[in-house]
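Input (Methyltransferase FkbM domain-containing protein):
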Amino acid sequence: MRAVNEEQYTKFGKYFPFAVGAGSGIRQASVLKNDNKDLMDYGKQVVVHIDFAYFLKEIIKESFIDDAWIDNEYAEYAMMHYFYRNGTLDRNNITICQFNMEIHGPQDNVNMKETFRQFLSRLLDDGRYGIFRPVKGGHYRLFFLNLENKKCLEKYVL
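Output:
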């Protein structure tokens, strides 16, 4: 699968052969096992993980991000606190103007449901990100826009 991903992503950007998420290390991840998008056959695989803030700041060397697309097969729950006021991104002086996050449905998992509820509630309380056009399909697809940062507002709203 790595060869397929590398071929796809190098057409428009740089390919990084690791997972980006909440923390660095070597651990299991849910990975698409084949290149047939119709089958969507996922399995567990041990992969190198790089912390999201470290990836932005130290590897791609950017602290102002126009748009981040986050789809990390249930690992998004561990990243939710990054976006809170005084969260990991703030502590690393990283600004994200907008981010799209696919949140895999918590089904009957009470802890995941509560984490999801806290995430949305906290973002609303923080007042930084507006939440736009939630879409419920197989998963929740949410679009967030930074309404606090002047540069983001000038770029996307004003």
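The radius of gyration is 16 Å.
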